[in-house]
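**Polypeptide and fold**
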Amino acid sequence: AVIHNYARYLATHAPDWPDKDWRGMRAMENLPTLFWLYRRTGDEIVLQAAQSIQANCFDWTHYFVDFPWDSEAILKNKIPHNWGPIGLTAHVVNVAMAVKYPGVWYQQSQEDSFKEAVYEGLKNLDRHHGQVAGRFSGDEHISGTRPTQGTELCAVVELMYSLENLIQVLGDPILADRLEQLAYNANPGTCTDDYWAHQYDQQANQVLCTNAPREWSTNGDSSNLYGLEPNFGCCTANMHQGWPKFVAHMWMATPDRGLAAVTYGPSVVSAKVANGVDARIEEKTLYPFQGDIQLTISVSEPAAFPLYLRIPVWAEGAVISIGDTRLKPQPGSFCAVEREWKTGDVIQLTLPMVLRTETRYNDAVSILRGPLYYSLKIEEEWKEFKRHHDTLPVIDWEIYPKSAWNYGLILDRTNPDLSIQVETQAIGEKPFATATAPVVLKVKGKKIPAWGLVNNSAGPAPISPVKSEEAVEELTLIPYGSTRLRITEFPTISE
């Protein structure tokens, strides 16, 4: 009743969503709730409220299509790093939230231009501000593609939520691939393995976490400390939505009374399927570290309904097995498995986790396996910066490197499996602990002596390939989410 009364108030009162204010930038956050309400009540006044908001707040749809903050704006130092009306359009959390707005509104408008604006916006953000793990830069304001630019934890969890909304509307498996990258890399990579401390800003190449100035657009000196509320308290309040909302969106209902496995991980889903049959599916897996997934079906009575299994775009050679039936689904799709299901049916999904590479800033290379990026394991020295509680481990930490980080890789970019050895071990109590990373990659490399610190961050990686007369060393790479200090974008060594 409270939400319904709120919707009526919005529909019957003059709109107040000015472009120059925060509420005008974020007004469309109301729409997921309003559409939830409309699906339950059918009250047309709810759609009137949504229409009023969409017509009177900041126009993110045209913003994403005619994107103002491109690479030229970076070069000419035109991106506004302030809190004025224009600066709010470059604010990383505003942008991460707004990614979903055109797609959410598409439900009511049914105009393809709104759907297309979602993809145009993501393309523009990736091209001009893209970072590893599906995120884009924003150390308060969007700030380019250099791997030492930060991304706020708030923006990571808000972008996850935006993708979760978009998947519900658009049903695009590519968006779910990106959601997994954020959830399994950027989300844990900006927190300690026990979640007692987090950063405000994370970096892809992060070799020193100290209270010191860096080349952020706006953020302060404490932004990449691990702690209670470094720089500002918003991420402390906001970080907790990441995992619960991700888990809540792992499975989704489909219009044909089936279920879709949107993202993978150990889970159990209970839902109504077919004509009201109770179904339960238990998922057993070591994903995202390994690619074997087992789904066990329980139903209150035998029932025919479709199960849609997402096949990531990287999963060439994926196989679905049900008894004696084997399917070879298309990567980058939802594969529909339709049959009459009975209790005890088991689906085995195998997603081959082949090593692959990605070309990054200055022609550097990043290494991926499945949904995970892999980063150099750097030995760490933790120093207590500030303690917030007498007994609980509520502490701000500085982290210093105790081993070298300035390495280039000796790597066959086209066939990385020829250059990299994969080692696995049991998953520990803390899946993203540095010391017990479930997957370890071994690769050869050489130090690059000229590559050092600049303004308390790793300097720009030398343009690949790089000549080095240093000795060949064996390097250890672990999942990005298992690192606090890391190199993720590596130069490559010339022959």
About this structure: The chain is about 25% helix and 25% strand. The mean pLDDT is 97.
